[in-house]
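Issue 218. Parser rejects a valid record. Input:
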Amino acid sequence: MAHYEPPKQGKASQLFDVIVLVILTVGALFVPLWLGMAGAAKIVAEPVDSPTWESLGQTAAQAAQYEALGYDPASAHDLILARFDYSFSAGALIAMIVVIVLYYVLMLKFSEVEYREVIAEKFGDRR
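Output the parser choked on:
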């Protein structure tokens, strides 16, 4: 039985693949941020008029760490009290489900094609 050897890929193709993968990775990480879909807290729970570390619910150790970072109670107010908005729409949920199912089907189709090519190469086409 012959040992399977995949087709060789040139250096330019490998470099192109790496660049495309880096662009896709950066895009997947930053596009939701640029579209305002993730990463930023959007709700500030009950603002405090004249904030102190105690009114913000911070211990002395936490306050010391904020001060070491250059924050005072007024500047840390929004940072401490900000809460993430976990709401979503039914349309966004359905769109995400459709994208995941289509991706799964696409990967199954490509895998089947490649699997059949490897079997045909290794054992011959028996059709």
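Fixed in the parser; the record now loads. The CA atoms of residues 107 and 113 lie 10 Å apart.
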